[in-house]
Amino acid sequence: MNRELLLEGVGRRYGLGGAPWVLRGVDLALAPGTLTRIEGANGTGKSTLLRLLAGIDAPTEGRITGRPRTAYVPERFPAALPFTAAGYLIHLGSVHGLSRGEAARAAVEWLERLGAAEYARTPMSELSKGSSQKVAVAQALLAEPELLVLDEAWTGLDTAARTELERAVLERRAAGGTVVFVDHDPRRLAGAPDVTYAVVDGNVRTVTVSSVPREEAYVVVEVQGAPGAEPPVEATRLAVSVEEPRPGRPGPGLGSLRLTVPETHSDTLLRTLLTAHPPWHVVSVGEGPPATRVPPRAPAATAVDAVAVAVAGAGADVDAEVRS
Ligand SMILES: Nc1ncnc2c1ncn2[C@@H]1O[C@H](COP(=O)(O)OP(=O)(O)OP(=O)(O)O)[C@@H](O)[C@H]1O
């Protein structure tokens, strides 16, 4: 994705003629490599706005251009789909343009990351609310979308999965993706958004814009691991550099390490290290020098248009194949 998603004079109302406008005259630009928070009171139109951004709903007036490969986690996930969890994810992976093998690997990876691997073969209709939400999140992440739209996606997730989703959001942004989210918990990704908007009176107002150029703010975390321990894969993925402060030690992964991470990733990195098994001891956390920007990951292999969970109507014949 190399251009902005642009909303120009966008309005949406439900119903004909005299129906009230939920949104009207919305102008908004979302740039690649940014994280945007949308806030606002209940019923102000946040979900309406996210559905328009995700492309699963169309504006009544105005236009939206520049939408890249998009994935969306809706506020309400249609859980009773005729699939197993893995079957659904493999099907959605195919919709996103992955081969069946790629989709199966991505499904396993995301179910594991979210702590739902044991439910891979469970019919969606039998999943608990939280496990079903993990599948909703996994379907959006598995094809590394360029635009990720999250409507209260953390609701119902356990602590570990909530942390994992925060991490995934930061990874998407670091990879050059655009992420937009709504969450009623003000602590969600606190300090991380590049911009926060509030939906008020049918329009969008800027609440905060990050004043520090993100790529210039880095944190250096020095950690001590158990003898022989490798740093968690997630920690090395979040870091822009991993160094051994004292060369000549017995081998890689032993002793202390110095990780440099974008400031916005530091909380996630610390959580990753402290919740590792066995945990890593954080020796020091300090301000880092300006460093090079996190290189974007290679784009996903194939293109897909807008998403969707909307594929809710997907066929039972696929499910039959997957379950067999
Ligand atoms: N499909 C629909 N048909 C008719 N009205 C709708 C529809 N979807 C939303 N609305 C109405 O649009 C308004 C905004 O709803 P929306 O769900 O976008 O708000 P929200 O800010 O996301 O609310 P919440 O914080 O409670 O999730 C509400 O008055 C709602 O009743």
CATH architecture of the largest domain: 3-Layer(aba) Sandwich
In what order do the strands lie side by side in the largest sheet?
A: 5-6-7-3-8-9
Report how far the terminal alpha carbons are from each other: 38 Å
CA gyration radius, whole angstroms: 21 Å
Which series of helices and strands comes N to C?
EEEHEEHHHEHEEEEHEEHEH
CATH domain class of the largest domain: Alpha Beta
| Structural class by helix and strand composition | alpha/beta
Q: Which molecules are bound besides the chains?
A: adenosine-5'-triphosphate
Oligomeric state: single chain
CATH superfamily of the largest domain: P-loop containing nucleotide triphosphate hydrolases
- Major sheet description: 6 strands, mixed
Q: Ranges with pLDDT <50 over ≥5 residues?
A: 249-253, 290-324
Overall average pLDDT: 82
CATH level 3 topology of the largest domain:
Rossmann fold
- Total discrete domains: 2
Principal-axes geometry comes out as: globular
